[in-house]
Prior knowledge:
This protein is an alpha/beta fold. The protein has a domain of 193 residues: Zn-dependent exopeptidases (Aminopeptidase, 3-Layer(aba) Sandwich). Helices cover 30% and strands 16% of the residues. The chain is built from seven helices and nine strands. Helix 5 packs antiparallel against helix 7. The longest helix is centred in the middle third of the chain and has 30 residues. It is globular and about 55 Å long. GO terms for molecular function: N-formylglutamate deformylase activity.
Amino acid sequence: MTxxxxxxxxxxxALPLVVDSPHSGLLHAETLPxxxxxxxxxxxxxxxxxxxxxxxxxxxxxxxxxxxxxxxVDVNRARDDIDPDLIDGAMPYEVRPTDKSGRxxxxxxxxxxxxxxxxxxxxxxxxxEYLLKTYYDPYHAALSxxxxxxxxxxxxxxHLDCHSMKSRGNAMNVxxxxxxxDFVVSxxxxxxxxxxxxELVAECLRSLGYKVAINWPYKGxxxxxxxxxxxxxxxxxxxxxxxxxxxDEATLAQHAGFAVLRGHLDELLEHIAAHIHTxxxx
Length: 282
């Protein structure tokens, strides 16, 4: 079986640092009744985020990247966050739709953009479960396994869950119409990593000249909430990057800002690695 993700191990001495990019993939083999045009589907793509954090293995981190697109399966949602209106029949278990699926952004996306449905027809329960077993389950098994292995070895683990965001919120977002900062860093209002760690990341980015918001308009979703436990030294942090910093949002092409941002994120990863070395000596 071909795994639906790419994994890059540390290039040298390993650290208990896991960096994941869950929305930077584009590959899938399914034939589905799509209604949304390609440009609408690509609007949810965290373009080039895997490349922006490619330095992680060089500082001792492990880099996990989804190969499949977010519109197909969004691993940053709970597995049962399914919009029942998207399914033709009942799933083999109780679904628990949240406000995310209500706005078209559940684990199986209903909307690509406001008013633009992903699918021309509902999905069968069999197809829905097939997609989850094929894409969602292996990705979560990989991430949870990496975090558990590193925590078992070092007694601590740090996890960066990395995303990009539109420069302005739309009608599917809680900040509809609002201009966004350069970065949003999130820890579920303090529940997924220590205050010291989120402040270290935010201050490093600010020192590089960026505007940084904390826990708004994003608080962090399933990937940081599922496996974090700061009291047990399991720290997970979500990072959202404003796409306008490094790409043309209309053409999806990288611009000159990409190299600058990539260099700054290399610095951030070096700073985080130094912090982890310090914490492990305590």
